[in-house]
Amino acid sequence: MKSYTFKTLSVNDLQVDLKNPRLPQSRAFIDPTSVMDYLQERENILEVAESIAENGIFPSEPLIAVEEDGIHSVIEGNRRLVAMKLLANPSLAIKHQNKFKEASTNADLSELSDLNVIVYNDRLAAAPVLIKRHTNDPAKLRPWEMIMKAHYTTSFMTAGKTLPEVANALSIEVSSLRSDLETLQLYNLALALPFEPTIKEKIADENKFTLSNLVRAIASSTGAGLFKLEFNDADGKAYLSYDKKEFLRPFAKLILDIVSEDFNSRIANTAVEIETYFNSYNEKFKPNQSLIVKESIGDVIAYTTTLKSLDDIYTVAPPPPAPPTPAPGTTPTPNPAPKPTPTPSPAPPSPVPGTPPAPPPAPAPTPTPKPKPKPKARKRTSIIFQDVTVVRNFSKQRVTVIVTELKKIDADRFKNSAGVLLRTLLDIITHEFIKSHGEDVVMESEAQAKLKPGQKLRDYWTPELFAMLNRIAGGGKKFGLPSTAMSALNKHLTMKGPHNVLFLLNEIVHNPDFIFTKQDLLDIYDKLEPYIKEVL
């Protein structure tokens, strides 16, 4: 069923969107006027208006709106809409009124009464179009910032909706929606911390606070070990693994360093540089992870309301009281030293009558342990080691070609190519492996059975990588893989969030905002190498 219609509407029939993702969440927008004023403050609306006055309205780029309670709110093209409204009524301009009047004089105002508009039935139906335009097509449109995308996609996570349901409706990967949810929760925590007003103002400016630096730091191998966040798909929440006050020690430090630009992509771009940054933290910022507590980021945000300042986070237990000072003219009585407990010597054996006593045995020499030889490090500039070979008789030679190319790609220079090709290799060899055991036919039959009557799977359908790996991991001895390969699979399939190698691979391939390093790719391959080498 078609979820939109084409309508001809006047500019006066249209309203700017109060839920525009570009509007900062820290600022209240109570009516269309407040939105128009904000867009005039932050955007070059005059330039858009002058372009419309000179060139007219392009019919190939219609406005997109949603009709709610009889009101047509424009969800794509708000800057153009504001420019049109100011051409129609220059007195609404909060600045450059004379220039808007001049542009209005030169414009064909009759066009403003006859606008072609695509009108959707609801916001969810239009969402896939907007996401594609603002995240996958940056050359055509100004892309959303990371936090803008997170606000937009997570706004559809209403009560009773699951991650897969919402991701499917938005036409995005579950991993992308999961990343948006965690990103938004971390950002809200940063906003809730008791920083000085000037710091809070900089964090609240979504156009200036570089949220990607925060996400990149926490998703790094060192950051993952420091913060130990876990994501629960069932309720869509990120959880701590240890005490919240201890968690906030390094978290608040990281936020301050991002604001002051003591942590950014120029200073800490590689995994090694990020590790060096975190290692520079003194004891004040290092958490005690011994107290195991499972609390959500929402619980931590609630806890921040009890804090008056950052000093409350870094307060430590007072030292034990000093001993009392003796009165003048008296000699302090020292604490008596504990008497050592004598160790009884073993009684010597009784000598046999008529024989001289035996001499005491000489102490046995202490053997000097030989140092174990250190294994030689396997050096590489590529992700995959040069000694990896293709042994199995794959039905297509493409696997051999991909392995050869992965050996040649310098991951320092071409990390995106290397990451995408590694994911491609995993997909192909895993599918070929289950196919060799006849399991592809079983999985296809299972998928077909889940469809509605009359529906069928698309041509050349293959199972998703995660489903195939889960099938192998749960297959026991059926697939004949050694325990090392099975352990590698089971361990990394069950990990949550950024610890899961498949989550990272999905982010590399599908998330345009995801920032990763060569070391991240090396870590992914190293964790899966026992499985990859066996399947190859």
TrEMBL record:
Point to the regions of Pro residues compositional bias.
317-370
Q: Quick one: where's region Disordered?
A: 314-381
Where are the compositionally biased (Basic residues) regions?
371-381
Indicate the secretion signal residues.
Answer: none
Top-rank lineage group of the source organism: Bacteria
Q: Which InterPro entries match?
A: ParB/Sulfiredoxin_sf, ParB_N
Provide the ParB-like N-terminal domain boundaries.
28-118
Could you identify this protein by its name?
ParB/Srx family N-terminal domain-containing protein
